[in-house]
Design a protein that fits this description.
Blueprint: H1 6-9, H2 11-14, H3 20-29, E1 31-35, H4 41-51, E2 55-59, H5 84-95, E3 100-104, H6 113-117, E4 122-125, H7 130-142, E5 147-153, E6 156-162, H8 175-178, H9 189-192, H10 196-215, E7 224-229, E8 234-239, H11 246-255, E9 271-272, H12 274-280, E10 286-290, E11 303-304, E12 322-326, H13 332-343, E13 348-352
Parallel strand pairs: 1-2, 1-4, 2-3, 4-5, 9-13, 10-11, 10-12, 12-13
Antiparallel strand pairs: 5-6, 6-7, 7-8
Length: about 350
């Protein structure tokens, strides 16, 4: 370790006249927060550390799952079941000696977001959660932090740099200038699926934004949203105008809870553990409903009703039965459990805790 010199490790980067020793020093002094250590966040973190970022903090409450590995290539089969943020931090430690990397296993929420973003120069959104994306955006606007945004939908990827201070002291457009209201019907990668190629491309584009902001080289994607389609190799830039004011977003922040069931805040009374379900499999009073298609299940389900088109009226409800909702990790099945309980308050409906991954 002591024999490794920055001049050797970053030689090809420093050779760029636009970067040079001065630019490399800026990277070494930068403090970056990466929220989400999945398909976007994991390559973002590795490439930032490999570029010489001095301080890097990773946040992800989730564990590595077998279904993640096709697009989360910095994890191995041996990492399945372990903390994403911890395993990713360990990987980075082994290959980036000049990066101080730390991690957190907690979900980012309205209650802790301000504290978590406060000491970092740039916040990078590598999440797969729409409520969390809006939470990060609104907190960054209020506390004047630049946010490098990335998101995915099937074969499309989206990138922008939000809320970057301009030379005149104003700030560039933010997420609410592009999409004022949260569309909760948009499916995430687990629900809609994705190719690993588009994931890595968008992650690389986000890394590029961070490096440009820190070094001052090039033009960041401010006041525009880059939309890239991997099937046609086409891209367009949607022009954005900063119109949603900080004061307006502060009001939204005070009234919005940014709740996301995938962040672990689930009603414990609505759960059935894998152990308990195993004991009850075969019981004639049990009705199993899958809310994701093509699940590899160790048991037969009575019906499959994908969460993105989940309609309780499509279920033939029997008040004498106990319903168990099933998905890969227990997030989407919890949403379905909530919908059924709202429609039929007296019905016995439970979510398989942790989904098939923990069964």
């Amino acid at each position: 370790m002591s024999s490794i010199r920055p001049s050797d490790l970053f030689k090809r980067q420093v050779t760029l006249s636009e970067i040079g020793e001065a630019g490399q020093q800026k990277l070494q002094e930068a403090k970056i927060l990466v929220v989400g250590c999945g398909g976007l966040g994991s390559p973002i973190a590795v490439y930032l550390a490999s570029s010489g970022i001095g301080k890097l903090h990773l946040i992800d409450f989730d564990q590595v799952d077998l279904t993640n590995l096709h697009r989360q290539v910095f994890y191995s089969l041996q990492d399945v079941g372990f903390s994403k943020s911890e395993r990713l931090a360990n990987f980075i430690t082994q290959r980036a000696p000049f990066t101080e990397v730390s991690f957190s296993n907690e979900a980012i929420t309205k209650e802790n977001v301000i504290e978590l973003i406060s000491e970092y120069d740039i916040i990078v959104d590598g999440t797969d959660s729409l409520p969390t994306k809006y939470l990060l955006n609104d907190a960054c606007v209020i506390h004047e932090k630049p946010l490098v945004y990335g998101s995915l939908y099937k074969f499309d990827g989206y990138v922008s740099t939000f809320n970057l201070r301009q030379k005149n002291g104003s700030f560039s457009a933010n997420l609410r200038d592009a999409f004022p209201d949260m569309n909760t019907d948009v499916a995430n990668c687990e629900e809609a699926g994705t190719l690993n190629a588009i994931v890595s491309m968008i992650a690389s584009a986000q890394v590029n934004e961070v490096l440009k902001i820190i070094t001052g080289v090039g033009k960041p994607l401010t006041n525009e949203l880059l939309v890239y389609n991997v099937l046609q190799n086409t891209q367009l830039k949607m022009k954005l105008s900063p119109s949603i004011l900080k004061a307006e977003i502060a009001k939204v922040f005070n009234s919005q809870n940014y709740f996301d069931a995938s962040c672990g805040a689930q009603n414990p009374d609505w759960q059935i553990s894998p152990k308990e379900l195993k004991h009850k499999i075969g019981d004639s009073t049990l009705k199993l409903i899958a809310v994701l298609p093509n699940l590899q299940l160790p048991f037969k389900v009575h019906q499959t009703l994908p969460i993105q088109e989940f309609d309780v009226t499509r279920l033939n409800i029997d008040e004498e039965k106990t319903y168990v909702m099933v998905c890969q990790k227990g997030f989407n099945s919890y949403k379905a459990t909530k919908l059924l309980r709202e429609k039929y308050p007296s019905l016995q409906v439970f979510n398989l805790t942790g989904g098939i991954s923990n069964y």
